[in-house]
Amino acid sequence: MPFFPRNYLAQQRVNSSLLANRNPILSLLMKITQTLSALLAIFIATICSAAEPTVTLRSFGETKDGEKVTLYTLTNKNGLKAEIADYGGTVTRLITPDRNGNFGDIALGFDNISDYETKSPYFGCLIGRYGNRIAGGKFTLDGKSYSLATNNEPAGIPCNLHGGNVGFDKKMWKASPAIKKGQAALKLVLTSPDGDEGFPGELKVTVWYVLTNDDELKIQYKATTDKATPVNLTNHLYFNLKGEGIGDINGHVLTFHASKYTPVDAGLIPTGELAPVAGTPFDFTKPRAIGERNNADHEQIKFGGGYDHNWVLDKTYGEMGLAAEVYEPVSGRVMEVWTEEPGLQFYGGNFLEVDGVERIGKSGVAYKHRTGFCLETQHYPDSPNQDSFPSTILRPGETYATTTIYRFKSR
């Protein structure tokens, strides 16, 4: 661009104005030109200010076994961020805007690896081989019986929970950052050996986290095996749409696209029934606040200490569909859950402070009772022991493939 002295340009504007005052047509043309110039400037500023998606990394310390942990930060073009550790494939932060455009972290979690190893109730991590519970830690497959760790005992009744003592949430994943189709992404790979936590077959797992430019956290799961084995992968994010560490989640308003759920016994194992939600505290087919009925005088609520149940989604299994919507009135944040899975586990954070472990979050505030909730897409709990449920058995030559999307908006 040629350079002109400032006083020269000013004089030319004065001369142009004098000419325009003497010629109405010239005056009109000048106004049109000025308007088009202003619009062009706005357009150019908008294009120039649009940020490119990025993936950056930094150290997140070392595990107690001396393994170095890396934290990857995915940023989309709109400024949303997801921080993900290769330990457990754990989403440690999820930063989204409220209705006023103010960004805040909506994912519960810690700011150090030590707390994730010793205090985490599965904050933000990948769950496998089997998300949720397997009754008694036992199942039979192709005539052979298998015994798993019983690492959970609701009402004193033992079961296998979330893959056992050292599930996928406690593994180091091989991470590869990428810009995938113009979007920030992280590829995570894990090989679970034959007999891992009692499960048969070598299972090879690939998970993609993609922070899309449509303000979605997309999670794509794939797995193959060399022996028949149960597989039920999910993510255990805890959300508070007001912001991590800001009060309870009772005022969040839920809508589930599910007219049935799977009732449980006292050990939180499904009875096998697909029961209608109509007329029960489990009816979220129309928007209802979480806190409206999570202390209801209902047997299922008492079993779970609140909500800790699987909803049977109305959509066709295997097809991507809207499972749930959550709206938080104070911040205006909205989260939609889309999935190809047949079920959705809603856990209302009932035991965040009642198990004797104080959990200080990233904001420096202790997580109290019901200060976070989970919406875990999944097959139904205890499916390996329930023939009437959709199968979770993966066989050699098959590929386990499923996608879940958390979509963020505001209103």
How are the SSEs ordered, and which strands pair?
Blueprint: H1 6-22, H2 24-49, E1 54-62, E2 68-75, E3 81-85, E4 90-97, E5 103-105, H3 113-118, E6 126-127, E7 133-135, E8 138-141, E9 144-147, E10 159-161, E11 174-180, E12 183-192, E13 203-211, E14 216-225, E15 229-230, E16 234-235, E17 253-256, E18 260-262, E19 275-276, E20 288-289, H4 299-304, E21 308-312, E22 321-327, E23 333-339, E24 343-347, E25 374-378, E26 393-394, E27 400-410
What structural class should be given to the helix and strand makeup? mainly beta
Shape: globular
**What is the β-strand count?**
27
Cα separation of the termini:
44 Å
Mean pLDDT: 91
CATH architecture of the largest domain: Distorted Sandwich
What does this structure look like?
- This protein is mainly beta.
- Helices cover 13% and strands 35% of the residues.
- The chain has four helices and 27 strands.
- The strands form seven sheets. It has a nine-stranded antiparallel beta sheet, with no helix packed on it. Strands 1-2-3-4-5 form a five-stranded antiparallel beta sheet, with no helix packed on it.
- A hairpin with a 4-residue loop joins β13 and β14.
- The longest helix is centred in the first third of the chain and has 26 residues.
- It is globular and about 95 Å long.
